[in-house]
Amino acid sequence: MIRIAICDDDKKILDDLLEYINKYTEKKNMAKIEVFCFNSASLLQSALEDRKVFDIFILDVYIGNEMGTVLSRNIRKFGIESPIIFITTSLEHAPQSYEVGTLRYLIKPIDIVKFYEALEAAIEKAEKIGRRQIKLKTENGLETINASYIMCSEAHEHYQYILLNDETELKVRLTVKELFTILSKHGGFCRVGSSYIINLRHVKNVSRTDVLLYNNKKIQIPRGKHVEIKNAFWDYQYEIQED
Question: d(Cα 18, Cα 128) in Å, to the nearest integer?
Fold first, then answer.
């Protein structure tokens, strides 16, 4: 199931986009798209804070008194990689939108051909991201999570404590090596010392002494490992720009 969030304060635009998406699913004979409409950035933000998951975002730049570019940065701060399509009346904010890896930037009135091209590219990317689902046996039973949502893990005795982007913590009985083997299949993960695994998607900065995550958690870098981790961070930034 592909879940699409549309955020625009113009009801006609919301209705038009919903109609276009429904026609697209009929044409492609797809029964796996669900659309959620929001008329304010704050409502969509609240949905994300409540752990609602969306695979594609379609945003206006100007959402009433709110800015879609600010919303898009907040989406990325959640560690969400889902493709973002902007549909707006102005090219003014296009450079800002691409700072968060925007997939397409479309100008109103909506060109339906360009919109379908953008939607098809977004679905393809969303399906690729969806393949990052992993299953872990935790103390609460078997859980399925998206590897993208893991911020870091820390080893204590025979367990790994995995911190997710919503601050949920999972406890799994694995060695650091075993967990890293699972996570490294999905790319973007790096070991820091003998106890930590970090997800480079959630790294805000790398200093000479610490890795700073977007939740402001600091992880100390072992002596002599700064260059290696810094290079891994910048290599990852280059890879996601290429994607």
Answer: 23
pLDDT digits (tens, 9 = 90+) for 50-66: 878 899 999 999 898 88
Degrees, nearest 5: CA angle 91-57-44: 105
Alpha helices in the chain (DSSP H): 11-27, 41-49, 68-77, 94-98, 112-130, 176-184, 226-242
CA distance 195 to 163: 13
Task: Please name each of the domains of the chain with its CATH number.
Answer: 2-130 (3.40.50.2300), 134-242 (2.40.50.1020)
Instruction: Please count the other Cβ atoms lying within 10 Å of the Cβ belonging to residue 38.
Output: 21
Q: What is the mean pLDDT of residues 1-27?
A: 93
Residue 141 makes CB contacts below 8 A (sequence gap 6+) with none
- State how far the Cα of 174 lies from the Cα of 56, in Å rounded to an integer: 33
What's the rounded mean pLDDT across residues 45-51? 87
Closest CA to 130 of 72, 56, 237: 56
Q: Are 64 and 8 in contact (CB under 8 A)?
A: no
